[in-house]
Design a protein that fits this description.
This protein is of the alpha+beta class. Helix content is about 20%, strand content about 50%. The strands form two sheets. The chain has a nine-stranded antiparallel sheet with strand order 1-2-3-4-5-6-7-10-11. Helix 1 packs antiparallel against helix 2.
């Protein structure tokens, strides 16, 4: 359960952005909706990679070719360097820097607060910049996580960019029951930025219920 907690929330985070794009009855501008979703997915991916490799005992993920990890246990910092590395289904280059602290008491060391930054980092050729801060809330069995993106920029090979700032709280409704995880997450928060056409956008989510069937 400790191992899967943040991975589950990362999946829902990515899923949630796409679900809002396709299910929200407000029918946002198509380009803005796509770019909002793309930015959210890239944040979720970086979050999942970072969480998988955050731990004082060496992390939860296995190293693969083209991936190096440096750990500073006293400072609670991790540096992941990718060099043409195929990892989690994408080609990665550059550096992810992670600073972390323990979100809960020592008996639940699987939960962390993270600060994630990047150096010349690309995923399948798309660059990602900015700072992602994740904060664990609630209690372990009924978790909520706040994910904040500050100064985020995605840069594509044709020179187009998406820039945004976002702050969302994701709550796992029902939490864990007998080791199983519910299918529903409730999200609230905002996202605003400039899409790849240079147009401003803003999204507001107020207690939006997301589930695998894309139903509210």
């Amino acid at each position: 359960m400790k191992t899967n907690l943040f991975k589950i929330l990362a999946i829902f985070f990515a899923f949630g952005m796409f679900a809002l794009t396709s299910c929200d009855t407000s029918e946002p501008d198509q380009q803005s909706a796509e770019d909002d979703a793309r930015g959210g997915y890239m944040m979720a991916d970086a979050f999942a990679v970072s969480n998988d490799n955050t731990n004082d005992d060496g992390g939860k993920a296995l190293l693969v070719e083209g991936m190096e990890i440096e750990r500073s246990l006293l400072e609670h910092k991790v540096k992941i360097t990718f060099s043409n590395c195929d990892y989690r289904g994408a080609k990665r280059n550059g550096v992810i820097n992670i600073a972390y602290d323990f979100a809960l008491e020592p008996s639940n060391l699987g939960a962390y607060n993270l600060v994630i930054t990047f150096e010349d980092y690309t995923v399948d050729g798309v660059g990602l910049e900015g700072t992602i801060t994740t904060t664990f809330g609630g209690i372990y069995d009924t978790p909520a996580i706040t994910i904040v993106g500050t100064g985020m920029v995605a840069t594509f090979s044709n020179g187009e960019t998406i820039s945004w700032n976002s702050s969302q709280v994701y709550t796992l409704e029902g939490g864990f029951v007998n080791g199983l995880v519910g299918d529903t997450v409730v999200v609230s928060g905002t996202s605003e930025g400039v899409n790849r056409k240079g147009e401003s956008f803003k999204s507001t989510y107020a207690n939006v219920t997301l589930n695998r069937a894309c139903e509210d």
